[in-house]
Amino acid sequence: QVQLVESGGGLVQPGGSLRLSCAASGSIFSINNMAWYRQASGKQRESVASITSGGSTNYADAVKGRFTTSRDNAKNTVWLQMDSLKPEDTAVYYCNADVRLLNGRVYRYWGQGTQVTVSS
Predict the structure, then answer these.
(1) Neighbouring residues of 57: CB distance < 8 A, sequence distance ≥ 6
(2) Measured between alpha carbons, how far is 1 from 113 in angstroms, rounded to an integer?
(3) Which residues of the chain have pLDDT under 50?
C-alpha cells in the first residue's frame, strides 16, 4: 500500500503565497510522473501542474508564471509553490503520483486533498 499525504493548505489574502507539499510513503521503488489537480466548488476538476522524475514541468495556462512545482526524489515528495494568488485559485488541491512498487508494478495514487482559500 502507498499513501500520499498532503499539507500546506489554508486561507490567504489575494496576492499572497502558499506552498503545498505531498509526501508518498510505502513500498515504493521509484516515482515517475507527479501532478497537481484542483477542484473548485461547483466546477470540474482541472489539471494544474505536472513534473517528471527528471524534473521537466508543465503548467496550466491559468497558473503559468505564478505557480511552480518541484520534487525531491530521495524524499518522495513534491511541492507546489503558489505565488500571486487570486480568488479564482480557491479550490481543493489534490496531488497524484505514478508509483513503481517494489514488486515492479506501476499504479496511480491520489492524495486526500487540501483546501486553499484566497479571500480578503
Answers:
(1) 49, 50, 51, 68, 69
(2) 18
(3) none
